[in-house]
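Is this the right way to post structure tokens for a design question? Let me know if I should format differently. Anyway, here goes:
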């Protein structure tokens, strides 16, 4: 299984020549231009995790791809057929086995409504929580860890990695940080991963690793 990190929150997972796209949003540019996509997962409705243009382009080039997301995404993505998923659900999408964990976005501020958010586990090994620090009730081999957002502190990132105990972690949701800020957050994240016997890698946009 091959993972490619795009800008911000967008991930592309490839297996057996087929692809899974996660959170193609407004901070990912240009439009995600891929073929052989079996599924798209949108963890929540915020624009940095999906846009109508991104979904329309992926649907044009992959008309049979299935879109998965929580109820909030189904309500927001007018004109797109969304297969609603929530905590505890499992689906098969092409060669990918997907399980979903968590239900709500992290609190940004008491004045801002808390929306639906669901994390996704791919093939029982790669976990991406969306905008929340959900700890799955199963072991995680590789963790995509949010490191920069209006709703998080670096201490929470450190605690999250320590709680999940992945063998490998890498940062996502980084477009809200400067280069030096990302480096500082990554150093703390890496130290946390190593403290529980794992490691961490910082992936540039469009960089890939084998999982």
């Amino acid at each position: 299984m091959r993972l490619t990190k795009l800008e911000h929150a967008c991930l592309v997972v490839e297996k057996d020549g087929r692809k899974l796209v996660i959170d193609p949003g407004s901070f990912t540019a240009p439009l995600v231009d891929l073929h052989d996509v079996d599924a798209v997962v949108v963890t929540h409705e915020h624009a940095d995790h999906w846009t109508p243009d991104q979904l329309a382009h992926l649907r044009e080039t992959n008309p049979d791809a299935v879109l998965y997301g929580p109820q909030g995404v189904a309500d927001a993505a007018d004109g797109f057929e969304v297969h609603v998923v929530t905590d505890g659900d499992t689906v098969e999408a092409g060669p990918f086995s997907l399980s979903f964990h968590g239900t709500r976005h992290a609190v940004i501020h008491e004045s801002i409504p808390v929306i639906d958010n669901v994390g996704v586990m791919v093939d029982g090994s790669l976990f991406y929580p969306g905008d929340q620090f959900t700890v799955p009730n199963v072991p995680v081999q590789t963790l995509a860890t949010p490191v920069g957002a209006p709703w998080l502190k670096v201490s929470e990132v450190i605690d999250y990695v320590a709680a999940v105990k992945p063998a490998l972690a890498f940062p996502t949701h980084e477009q809200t940080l400067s280069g030096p800020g990302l480096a500082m957050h990554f150093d703390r994240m890496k130290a946390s991963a190593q403290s529980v016997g794992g490691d961490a890698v910082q992936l540039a946009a469009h960089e890939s690793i084998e999982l």
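Format looks fine. Someone answered above. Worth noting: The CA atoms of residues 98 and 122 lie 5 Å apart. The mean pLDDT is 97.
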